[in-house]
Amino acid sequence: MIRTHPRQRLTWLALLAIGLMMISACSSTRMAYRYADWGIVWWVEDYLTLTDAQKTELNRSLDELRAWHCASELPRYQAWLDTLQDDVRAREFSPATLAHHQQRLFGFFPPLMTQITPIATRLLASLSDAQVRELEQNMRQRQQDLADEYLEGDTEDRIAARAERTRERAERWLGELNAQQRALIAEWSEQRGRQTEIWLQGRQQWQEALLAALEHRHQPGFASQVESLILDAERFRGEDYREMMADSRAALNALMHELMTASDAIQVAHLADRAAELNRDFEALTCHGGAKVANAMDDQTVR
């Protein structure tokens, strides 16, 4: 159930990944958040044909997950966005400050992954042999589709495509980029080397580990295998992947610093407005009574 995409590594000033998590292609973050569980079901059904019983269980689990996340996690996002807005208004864009915000952003994911683990374990343990074969076939097809999309053309074509994607994401938060910023992104994209190939290779290695674990899905140790696959995913993706991710995060932080140094007052105001808008959406979404749900999910994890 965990899907990793290069866009998560291209977070703009640590906001874009949150936007993606909220399915930011929708016009409203609030609407996207409220319907995020549907999006997860649709994504699962891209890979698997679920039975009615599996759909019912998955929907119930996602309802609990969303209630926990809304009550327990969104207030943490708001607190982070408050400090981010303060730094934007103060034009505090030092590498240390940006690294701090990046670290806080990535810190939001482990609790979510921990809560997702028992949901994924129950679903995967319930798969039939035919569903496992369907999952394997669809994973391989999706892997090929991604390779066709991101490895199309020669090296120069790939660098140009990466730069274009990055410019588009930056402009969502800054507005139109100036010539210096576009040049910085072009240089950064050229320096990414084999990043996409390594990402795809790591993705495939993780999938192979999952398929191997599914061969033992009715045995007692399966839950711990799924937990490792989700909470320690980089270990299964290999050393090249871990090194690439560490390098990518450092390079991303450097790029953000350079882009903000080259920004003007209009761009900073645009970023501040977008951050404030996202914060207002989170404030409107924050729920109550999530502790009971969170405790119930913790109990399920223990069992």
Provide structural commentary.
The chain is 78% helix and 0% strand. By secondary structure, it is an all-alpha fold. The protein starts with 15 loop residues before the first helix and ends with a helix. Residues 1-27 and 289-303 have low confidence and may be disordered.
Q: DSSP helix count?
A: 16
**What integer is the average pLDDT?**
81
Structural class: mainly alpha
The portion of residues forming beta strands comes to under 5%
Largest sheet: none
SSE series: HHHHHHHHHHHHHHHH
The share of residues in helices is over 70%
Record keyword descriptors for this entry:
303 residues, mainly alpha, globular, disordered N terminus, disordered C terminus
Spell out the blueprint of helices and strands.
Layout: H1 16-21, H2 29-34, H3 36-47, H4 52-72, H5 74-89, H6 95-106, H7 109-125, H8 129-150, H9 155-174, H10 179-190, H11 195-214, H12 222-231, H13 233-237, H14 239-261, H15 265-285, H16 290-302
Helix pairs in contact: 3-4, 4-7, 4-16, 5-6, 5-15, 6-14, 7-12, 8-11, 9-10, 10-14, 11-12, 11-14
Compact summary:
With 303 residues, this protein is mostly helical. It has helices at residues 16-21, 29-34, 36-47, 52-72, 74-89, 95-106, 109-125, 129-150, 155-174, 179-190, 195-214, 222-231, 233-237, 239-261, 265-285, 290-302.
